[in-house]
Write a structure and sequence with these properties.
- With 432 residues, this protein is of the alpha+beta class.
- Among the domains are: 43-80 and 238-432, paralog of FGE (formylglycine-generating enzyme) (Alpha-Beta Complex), CATH 3.90.1580.10; 172-198, no CATH class.
- The chain has 10 helices and 14 strands.
- The chain has helices at 2-17, 84-105, 139-149, 177-183, 210-213, 221-226, 243-263, 277-285, 358-361, 378-381; strands at 42-45, 48-52, 68-72, 75-78, 114-116, 122-127, 169-175, 197-203, 272-273, 347-353, 383-387, 404-407, 415-416, 420-422.
- The strands form 5 sheets. Strands 1-4-14-9 form a 4-stranded antiparallel beta sheet.
- A hairpin with a 5-residue loop joins strand 5 and strand 6.
Length: 432
């Protein structure tokens, strides 16, 4: 009898410490706590609704520039365009990863590839150990990397040993979520999920010759030679990056943040990406609905006659606004959301395919239009919408409602980009 009494007490104690909820539905306990913080260099934009498109009807272009009420979920956006120095971090990471893989495969001591994670699980393919710096001037390292990463001697200028930018390729994986949503678990039965995973390899080095081939009979050689390399241009917006390279940068940026958070067993953010057209315009307006410019009003100057963006004013007086080409990011005042250069400096890639009539059929919630590869003319599929206008454009193109496009594999001296990342949840207030 005494033993039964002890067992009863023990059972009661165990029951009080369990997560069963006394038979009630209480959800999974001890879940990680999500306290959203603003990613470095990004601005939080709350959910909202706005009138997308030009405020005044442009009759000749009414098919292209329609007016539509669109709602957008909360997200973060880079407060400036991606700079040369920020993109150079990407280039250097790819360079260093290639070097470490080559040295690890060659068996150089100190550069062994990591084959187990911190839990002892086997990793395939092996990962790179980033803890040890690369001894670029070490004779053994130089000999191993010479043929694989550097220009051959007959291609060197003044015999200078330089990295071969053609070797700087980045590999990432994509998930065809929309394709999976259409085809997975349909009447044809369960598919192997690997068919929805694709591997992409792309050269990520900017086209530094854009300053020359974009303009005939124009002396831009100093910018061609120095724009991406010289520290004088570190805080200028990166250009010469096509749409595919901008997407690759976004994938890399997600990768390095995810790895940092995973090492600390912290919940992940959503992925970095290019903004949709609707997100870009919502952000550019800064809460000023129906205004043609990010600062409001119909004018490109303030009450003192100073220009408010870097573009092509006064029928070609490039210097009237303070810059003959691109200028340092953040050189002009931000809009009401704290975002810089949403008009002028460089046009910006968005994630969307350009279609003149997209406003007619795209959804009014988080409008995000993309052509599907199997349904489309390949030339139309490659047209990606750019927004914001640039240093070489007249004022019409720097208006928040103006749409334009460029082909996704084309790099220009007047197109850059910035990233966004979706806010996970409704609003920050829910997590206070």
């Amino acid at each position: 009898m005494r033993n039964l009494f002890v067992l009863g007490i023990l059972a009661a104690v165990l029951a009080s410490c369990s997560t069963s909820g006394n038979g009630e539905l209480i959800g999974v306990q001890n879940r990680p706590i999500w306290n959203p913080t603003d990613p470095y260099g990004m601005v939080y934009l709350p959910q909202g609704s706005f009138n997308m498109g030009p405020g005044d009807q442009d009759v000749p272009y009414a098919h292209v520039t329609q007016h539509k009420t669109v709602s957008v979920a909360a997200f973060y956006m880079d407060e400036t365009e991606i700079t040369n120095n920020e993109y150079r971090q990407f280039v250097n990471w790819v360079r260093d990863s290639i070097a470490r893989i080559l040295l690890g495969e060659a068996g150089v001591p100190g550069y062994e590839l990591v084959e187990e994670d911190k839990y002892g699980n086997f990793i395939d393919p092996p990962r790179i150990d980033w803890d040890r710096p690369i001894r670029w001037d070490d004779q053994e390292v130089r000999e191993i990397l010479e043929d694989e990463m550097y220009l051959p001697e007959h291609e060197r200028f003044y015999s200078r040993r330089q990295l071969d930018s053609r070797k700087l390729n980045f590999v990432y994986e994509t998930q065809a979520i929309k394709d999976a949503a259409r085809k997975l678990n349909r009447k044809q039965g369960q598919k192997d999920r690997s068919v929805f995973i694709d591997e992409v390899e792309i050269n990520i080095y900017p086209d530094t010759l854009v300053w020359t081939h974009d303009y005939a009979y124009s002396y831009n050689d100093p910018w061609t030679k120095n724009y991406f390399h010289h520290p004088a241009f570190d805080e200028y917006p990166v250009v010469g990056v096509n749409w595919k390279q901008a997407v690759a940068f976004s994938k890399w940026r997600t990768k390095i943040l995810d790895e940092y958070l995973l090492d600390r067993d912290e919940p992940l953010h959503d992925e970095f990406r290019l903004p949709t057209e609707s997100e870009w315009e919502y952000a550019a307006r800064g809460g000023l609905d129906l205004s043609p410019y990010p600062w409001g009003g119909p004018y490109t100057t303030n009450d003192k006659g100073c220009f408010l963006a870097n573009f092509k004013p006064r029928r070609g007086n490039y210097t009237a606004d303070g810059g003959i080409r691109t200028v340092r990011v953040g050189s002009y005042n931000p809009n009401n959301y704290g975002l810089y250069d949403m008009a002028g400096n460089v046009s910006e890639w968005t994630d969307n395919t350009y279609d003149e009539s997209a406003f007619s059929f795209a959804h009014d919630m988080n409008m995000d239009f993309k052509y599907e590869a199997e349904d489309s003319d390949p030339n139309i599929l490659k047209r990606k919408t750019i927004r914001g206008g640039s240093w070489k454009d007249i004022s019409h193109y720097i208006q928040v409602g103006t749409r334009d496009y460029e082909y996704q594999d084309t790099a220009k001296s007047y197109i850059g980009f910035r990233n966004v990342i979706s806010f996970l949840g409704r609003d920050k207030i829910d997590f206070r």
